[in-house]
Amino acid sequence: MWNWNTHLTAEMNINKNVVARFKKYAKISGTAFILLGAAGIFFPTFMTMTTLAFVAYLMLFAGFFSGWMTWTSNHRDWAGWLKSVLLVMVAIFMIFYPMQGVATLGLLFAIYFLMDAFAEFGLAFSLSPQKVWILWLFNAITSLALGVIFIINWPFSSLYLVGLFVGISLFFDGIALLSGGVFLDEIDETQKKKD
């Protein structure tokens, strides 16, 4: 994974433009994630249905695009057609049967939260001596807890848990991104004082 604690200053000197853009966009996206997360926490059912619609229409678009690619590249490829048909069928199922779609989405999000926790534990431990590592560790623990709670209550509470947990995850991801941008500002200021 990333090892920022030993190579951060050298990378910042080499890629000052990239670091400056990351700081700016980390703060902007962190703020946006915090606002979206707060909306999901206060209106979980709305966030659940919005997430379901987003995923369903994304799968529908992917199915049509995959079918088009199969037609233009190799229209005899049965695996490509199978993928396209399955994507379109699942998307249509989720659109016309939203409650079953929400239950399916709930299981997928439980898996997502567990994988997100794994990645964030790795990032937190790679940042270990820095001040900001504790926020990433807290973010990882939060994602792990959300995944476990989701699995325990699935599928009955998926209607409000999908939106609530997506909101909580976005909220803490936003805090972590915002603090990452501030952390890079502090490192940059320390580097300027040394120069």
Tell me what you see in this structure.
α2 (16-42) packs across α3 (44-73) and α3 runs antiparallel to α4. The chain has 7 helices and no strands. The model is unreliable at 1-7 (pLDDT under 50). The protein is mainly alpha-helical and 195 residues long. The protein is 89% helix and 0% strand. It has helices at residues 4-14, 16-42, 44-73, 78-96, 98-126, 133-153, 158-194. It has one domain.
Largest sheet report: none
As a percent range, the share of strand residues is: under 5%
As a whole number of angstroms, the C-alpha radius of gyration is 21 Å
Instruction: Name the helix and strand elements from N-terminus to C-terminus, one letter apiece.
Output: HHHHHHH
Q: Report the principal-axis shape.
A: globular
Taking all residues together, what is the mean pLDDT?
82
Q: Kindly report how far apart the N and C termini lie.
A: 30 Å
Counted up, domains total 1
Number of helices: 7
Q: Number of DSSP strands?
A: 0
- Weakly predicted, low-confidence segments: 1-7
Helix proportion range: over 70%
User: Which class of secondary structure composition applies to the elements?
Assistant: mainly alpha
Helix and strand arrangement:
Blueprint: H1 4-14, H2 16-42, H3 44-73, H4 78-96, H5 98-126, H6 133-153, H7 158-194
Short account of what is shown:
This protein is mainly α.
